[in-house]
């Protein structure tokens, strides 16, 4: 996606793949299930319209076996450029532990707070592992 403002050009590196509506947690897990095979943590931001139509996704970070850095400015910038109404964060835990870490909860809280400032809703933060998947929203964990 490319936006031009007079002499300034801004490009958002969003992967536009299968369009469609994200209707449930199951839809998110199906789309990102392959993350369970990764050896390092990968964090994606999924951008949706106000009616949960898939706009695209963007890899926000690739980390180590047990952590990944989060560039929230990148998430905010891309949400604004794509005119997203909602965002879902998705990352994997190669260790097999599906529970959210304290850092996961902190990042989710910060993401929710900054996205709210631009009227974008953080719908969930989903963790994928080899054995099972975890939804912070469904588990009433963190800021949801």
How many strand elements? Answer: 7
Query: What is the CATH C level class, in words?
Result: Alpha Beta
The string of secondary-structure elements, in order, is EEHEEHEHEE
Fraction of residues in β-strands: 25-35%
Distance between the termini: 30 Å
The main β sheet shows up as: 5 strands, mixed
Domains (count):
1
Q: Can you say what the CATH homologous superfamily is?
A: Cytidine Deaminase, domain 2
Give the structural class. alpha+beta
What name is given to the CATH topology?
Cytidine Deaminase, domain 2
Going across the biggest sheet, name each strand in turn.
Answer: 4-3-5-6-7
Shape assignment: globular
Question: Count of helices?
Answer: 3
Query: What Rg is obtained from the alpha carbons, in whole angstroms?
Result: 15 Å
- Give the CATH architecture: 3-Layer(aba) Sandwich
Low-confidence spans: pLDDT under 50, at least 5 residues?
none
The averaged pLDDT comes out at 89
Approximately how much helix is present in the residues?
A: 10-25%
Give an overview in words.
- This protein is α+β, with helices and mostly antiparallel strands and about 140 residues long.
- It has one domain (about 15-135): 3-Layer(aba) Sandwich (Cytidine Deaminase, domain 2), CATH 3.40.140.10.
- The protein has helices at about 25-30, 70-80, 100-115; strands at about 1-5, 10, 40-50, 55-60, 85-90, 120-130, 135.
- It has a 5-stranded mixed β-sheet, with helices on both faces. A two-stranded antiparallel ribbon has the order 1-2.
- A hairpin with a 2-residue loop joins β1 and β2.
- α2 runs parallel beside α3.
- The chain is globular, with a radius of gyration of 15 Å.
